Amino acid sequence: MNIKELRKERNLSQQDLADATGISKAKIEKWEVGKGAPKVEDYITLQNFFGINNSDSNEADLELNKDELNKESQLASIASNIKMDYMVALLAEIQEKLDPTKAASVIVSKVQKLSQLDFENKLNRMKA
What we know:
This protein is an all-alpha fold. The chain folds into 2 domains: 1-52, 434 Repressor (Amino-terminal Domain); 73-128, no CATH class. The chain contains 7 helices and no strands. It has helices at 3-9, 14-21, 25-32, 40-50, 54-97, 100-113, 116-127. Helix 5 runs antiparallel to helix 6 (100-113). The longest helix has 44 residues, at 54-97. Residues 3-57 form the HTH cro/C1-type domain.
């Protein structure tokens, strides 16, 4: 279901749709620019408002899932590049500054500091 297209077909503003459905304008704005998707209860509310039947809904769900998979794939690729860029920069720094015999222990120490949480925080900042 493309909310923006359905809304525009009916000559509704985002505020009109928000008022008619009880869904906040901020949520509608977010969904229309692709930053998230409606939760089940909001999806059902929109489906009822726009008069979309289940067969239309199933087709829309497949399209939404395809779009979400593409976004996830792009994020995974970005995450991989960030991690690789970080490691290359780290290794270059170590090579420049340290005696080769100390390099291995410093590498291990630095990699441990790059926790999963830190990595996820970087991804979340990129999504925003």
